């Protein structure tokens, strides 16, 4: 059978797939001794398929997870996630079973696990609390696995307190510097702060989910950890910090009771300042990954989504840093959009895309959605940014002590950060908070459709 029903009841034919995915399906059938009877492509930029396969009359639901392509962060090999999941399965943790890895194209073939994603979709408060408590118990179990099991599959173990505090920061920084395509004053400022404040009196090492609180759940229980592609060895405080970052995109409710559950389960209380440090360190990985993409976006990118991740997670770093030092962060002035002579052309394309995106085939609708969001963003840039830019320019020039217009203000600001970041920490925190909020205002009308736009981090 070569057809599968899509979400609208039409037919998705296997022979219409790109040749590489036809090869992947053929590999699955040969390797698992199954027949694929239906499939559905997951509507997202990363290639992934939900597949139903038959073996000896039994239906086996599968999930095929492909490579990140142009958006690959490069921190770990594609096979890394499968290796980690196998260790976790051996330890008795709920994870998808790995059947194998298709070599051409590369796809991890795993069980399709039942359950819902995103705790903000819990049926009620009772289910939210039950699921989050279960996750905290399982997270403690993950952290209790002997780190040697992960060293055996090639995961690097930090050798001292400073290395444990940095965790995998060096991987993200190496990739960031290799791909850097413009001055990045905020990122450089946060890197400097992390080096000055790394905990040096604490050496705890566990396997980290890293991008924590990613799981499926049903009936008040976690059914599976998912997305372990960033798993590494480091301070277990990092996974609690990662939950604060996850909460920006997928609100989980009050986290303090969940953290208390973890402390009771492990018998170890982690100081808030350590969790704060790792919150900044974890959040920085998002803007460092997005930075080159917002300057030179590949065709596969959801451009405004990446802008959202870049600016919101940059602000999240600044807010936690300011909170730890008691620096007040006054908000910037956000102007109302103003009509200009070019306004009608932006309005036309926004309205046209808004019409096209309703009722389209699911994957095409995803493509139209990303284009529409970009058009809305461009419309606001055209009508709001000149006024905001003028105010920010004056703030930067005042900080730098400039009376003449610099040739490259961003490069000068980055150089100022590198030389005076520690001495001018308060002023830079205030400047960068305003910068983040200004840029977030530009995509505010579509923010509700983006993952990672929550305004409150500290909870």
Which architecture of the largest domain does the CATH hierarchy give at level 2? Alpha-Beta Complex
Number of domains: 3
Low-confidence stretches: 1-11, 455-459
Distance between the termini: 51 Å
Which percent band covers the strand fraction?
5-15%
Please write the CATH class name of the largest domain. Answer: Alpha Beta
Give helix and strand order, one letter per element, not per position. EEHEEEHEEEHHHHHEEEEHHHHHHHH
The assigned structural class equals alpha+beta
- Number of alpha- plus pi-helical segments: 15
Mean pLDDT: 88
CATH 4th-level superfamily of the largest domain: Aminoglycoside phosphotransferase (APH), C-terminal lobe
What kind of sheet is the major sheet? 5 strands, antiparallel
Instruction: Order the strands across the largest sheet as they lie in space.
Output: 3-4-5-7-6
Describe the structure concisely.
It is built from 15 helices and twelve strands. Mean pLDDT is 88; it is low at 1-11 and 455-459. It is 51% helix and 13% strand.
How are the elements arranged and paired?
Elements: E1 3-5, E2 11-13, H1 19-32, E3 35-41, E4 48-55, E5 58-66, H2 80-90, E6 98-103, E7 106-111, E8 116-117, H3 125-144, H4 147-151, H5 161-166, H6 169-179, H7 185-197, E9 206-208, E10 215-218, E11 221-225, E12 232-234, H8 237-249, H9 256-266, H10 272-295, H11 303-325, H12 343-356, H13 362-400, H14 409-420, H15 425-442
Antiparallel strand pairs: 1-2, 3-4, 4-5, 5-7, 6-7, 8-10, 9-12, 10-11
């Amino acid at each position: 059978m070569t057809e599968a029903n899509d979400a609208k009841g039409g037919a998705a034919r296997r022979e219409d797939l790109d040749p590489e995915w036809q090869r992947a399906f053929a590999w699955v059938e040969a390797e698992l001794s199954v027949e694929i009877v239906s499939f559905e492509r997951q509507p997202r930029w990363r290639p992934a398929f939900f597949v139903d396969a038959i073996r000896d009359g039994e239906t086996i639901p599968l999930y095929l997870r492909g490579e990140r392509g142009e958006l690959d962060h490069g921190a770990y090999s594609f096979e890394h996630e499968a290796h980690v999941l196998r260790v976790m399965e051996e330890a008795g943790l709920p994870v998808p079973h790995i059947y194998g890895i298709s070599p051409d194209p590369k796809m991890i073939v795993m069980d399709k696990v039942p359950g819902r994603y995103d705790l903000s979709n819990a049926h009620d408060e009772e289910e939210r609390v039950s699921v989050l408590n279960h996750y905290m118990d399982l997270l403690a179990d993950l952290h209790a696995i002997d780190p040697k099991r992960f060293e055996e599959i090639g995961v690097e173990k930090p050798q001292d307190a400073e290395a444990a505090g940095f965790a995998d920061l060096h991987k993200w920084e190496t990739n960031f510097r290799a791909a850097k395509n413009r001055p990045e004053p905020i990122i450089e400022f946060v890197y400097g702060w992390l080096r000055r404040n790394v905990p040096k009196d604490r050496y705890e090492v566990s396997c980290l989910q890293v991008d924590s609180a990613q799981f499926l759940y049903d009936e008040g229980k976690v059914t599976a950890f998912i997305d372990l592609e960033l798993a590494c060895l480091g301070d277990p405080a990092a996974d609690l910090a990662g939950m604060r970052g996850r909460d920006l995109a997928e609100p989980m409710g009050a986290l303090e009771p969940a953290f208390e559950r973890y402390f009771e389960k492990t018998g170890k209380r982690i100081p808030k300042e350590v969790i704060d440090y790792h919150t900044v360190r974890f959040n920085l990985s998002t803007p460092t990954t997005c930075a080159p993409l917002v300057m030179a976006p590949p065709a596969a990118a959801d451009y405004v989504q990446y802008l959202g991740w870049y600016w919101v997670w940059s602000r999240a770093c600044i807010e936690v840093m300011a909170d730890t030092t008691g620096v007040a962060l006054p908000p910037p002035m956000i102007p109302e959009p103003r009509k200009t002579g070019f306004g009608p052309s932006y309005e036309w394309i926004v309205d046209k895309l808004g019409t096209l995106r309703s009722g389209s085939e699911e994957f095409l609708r995803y493509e139209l959605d990303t284009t529409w969001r970009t058009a809305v963003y461009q419309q606001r840039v055209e009508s709001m940014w000149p006024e905001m830019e003028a105010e920010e320019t004056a703030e930067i020039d005042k900080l730098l002590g400039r009376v003449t217009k610099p040739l490259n203000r961003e490069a000068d600001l980055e150089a100022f950060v590198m030389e005076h970041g520690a001495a001018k920490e308060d002023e830079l925190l205030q400047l960068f908070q305003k910068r983040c909020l200004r840029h977030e205002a530009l995509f505010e009308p579509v923010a509700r459709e983006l993952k990672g736009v929550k305004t409150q981090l500290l909870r």
